[in-house]
Design brief:
Blueprint (H helix, E strand, L loop, with lengths): L27 H19 L16 H21 L4 E3 L3 E12 L4 E14 L2 E12 L4 E7 L10 E4 L2 E2 L3 H12 L2
Antiparallel strand pairs: 1-2, 2-3, 3-4, 4-5, 5-6, 6-7
Length: 183
């Protein structure tokens, strides 16, 4: 048996000191509004309105990262339209394709442009291909790194460097890109 001093009362008093008649449970939103109203009333009685928090309205999302990403997208698209025309170049022996990816990194506060160029050459009846990817920060026009695949798909890349890190394959290059091109 539990001593009477430790037993909880059958009907504990609410924190504001008044008992309410039994009611059916209210929806969660109504319960939150009622709790907020009680908290406002209690704080007003104490005279400390500085701690009153409005939970009735939802917080507006921070629009700045979205706007910065939109601005980055526009700058990248403008650059691509201006400097990479046509997107596909065809000659008798060569086809070059240009593409890009862009990303605004909120963590780094930078707009990155990944230039992607693929080339297919036919020399002496033999088809070879190469791929060049270059990461540039658009605001400072700073090169961060480059990947160049060789004339053979089986061999190591001709160049694979991002900042001060050297890589040995396109998959390693893509791993090194992640901190710049993903949030």
């Amino acid at each position: 048996m539990v001593p009477a001093a430790l037993a909880s009362p059958a009907h504990p008093r609410p924190p504001h000191g008044r008992r309410r008649a039994f009611q059916t449970p209210r929806p969660a939103a109504a319960a939150l509004r009622a709790a907020a109203a009680r908290a406002h009333r209690d704080l007003d009685r104490v005279g400390d309105p500085a701690h009153v928090v409005n939970i009735h309205g939802a917080a507006q999302p921070n629009k700045q990262p979205y706007e910065l990403q939109e601005r980055c997208d526009k700058r990248a698209a403008d650059l691509f339209e201006r400097d990479y025309r046509p997107r596909v170049e065809n000659t008798k022996d060569v086809q070059r394709r240009f593409n890009y990816e862009d990303h605004y990194s909120a963590r780094l506060d930078k707009c990155f442009f990944l230039e992607i160029s693929s080339s297919y050459d036919r020399e002496g009846g033999k088809l070879t291909s190469s791929k060049i990817m270059r990461l540039v920060e658009l605001n400072d026009n700073k090169d961060y790194g480059v990947f160049v695949s060789g004339l053979s798909d089986r061999g190591p890349p001709v160049a694979c460097l991002l900042e001060d890190k050297i890589c040995q394959s396109e998959s390693e290059w893509r791993q090194l890109l992640k901190p710049f091109m993903e949030n």
